[in-house]
Write a structure and sequence with these properties.
The protein is α+β, with helices and mostly antiparallel strands. Helices cover about 40% and strands about 30% of the residues. It has helices at about 10-20, 30, 55-70, 95-110, 110-120, 165-180, 210-220, 220-230, and strands at about 40-50, 75-80, 85-95, 125-135, 150-160, 185-195, 200-205, 235-245. Strands 1-3-2-8-5-7-6-4 form an eight-stranded antiparallel beta barrel. Strand 2 and strand 3 (about 85-95) form a beta hairpin.
């Protein structure tokens, strides 16, 4: 005869397994969320420049960066004005990973690029960082209505789960700001390599003062307030930087 409880233990284990199977789960394939319907991605590069060398670095970029853009498409190149110091941001567009590999190989063998820019520039740079990101599927890369404004780069660290978890609420918050009309959306990027669950949003404004006035007005708009309150439940942290486009930047 079986001891008391011997039959109950397998039954309890089976019940726990059934409950676990019944729980909704976020599949790994959904964790990064939907993407654009193509293989295009963007490499986001940030360089910390030695404080005493920032002017020299910018001059070198403006003088020689045509050697780099001969190999692949530059989306934008900016220097930080507020929120960071002695830092530059640049974004590159690639058709796929094979395209990037071919470009990197060509650059390594480009004697003009290596000799005129890379060799002297390395001594000016303190730190380099890169990420790979996709545009979210509901966003197309935008352009400013005119030249001469400033850019705001906002980085949101979201809770794990990807756009499958927070995408709808985040999109509503972005659209609420767009609908106020004070700012122009350039792009919304979600990381694939680098710190995951990171979203970078690039905005264009006529000036820092125009942005400040628009933000003040937006924060008094009940629709914006409601959308932001709904989205922040998925937010872990955020940071922003005011950027000035360099002479070589396609986005000016």
């Amino acid at each position: 005869m079986l001891p008391p409880g011997a039959l109950r233990r397998p039954l309890a284990a089976a019940a726990r397994l059934a409950r676990a199977r019944a729980r909704p789960q976020v599949l790994a394939s959904l964790a990064t969320g939907p993407r654009q319907n193509n293989s295009i991605f963007y490499e986001i590069r940030t360089y910390d420049i030695k404080p005493s060398k920032m002017k020299e670095f910018v001059e070198m970029v403006n003088k020689y960066f045509h050697l780099r853009t001969a190999h692949s498409e530059l989306v934008g190149f900016w220097s930080a004005e507020l929120g960071a110091m002695n830092k530059v941001f640049h974004v590159w567009k690639y058709d796929n990973f094979a395209h990037r590999t071919a470009v990197r190989h060509a650059l390594a063998n480009d004697k003009d690029w290596q000799g005129k820019f890379i060799s002297p520039a390395l001594s000016l740079i303190e730190k380099q960082h890169n990420e790979v990101a996709y545009l979210v599927p509901w966003c197309q890369l935008g352009k400013p209505p005119k030249e001469g404004g400033v850019y705001e780069w906002v980085t949101f660290q979201m809770k794990p789960g990807g756009p499958a978890l927070w995408g709808e609420a985040f999109r509503a918050a972005i659209n609420a700001h767009i609908n106020t009309g004070y700012t122009k959306l350039i792009g919304v990027f979600h990381t694939e390599y680098g710190l995951l669950n990171t979203v970078h949003v690039i905005w264009w404004n006529e000036s820092p003062d125009h942005r400040a006035a628009g933000r003040h007005s937006a924060h008094e708009d009940a629709r914006v307030v409601a959308a932001v309150r709904d989205s922040v439940r998925f937010l872990e942290s955020q940071q922003n930087v005011l950027l000035i486009p360099l002479q070589c930047s396609p986005l000016k």
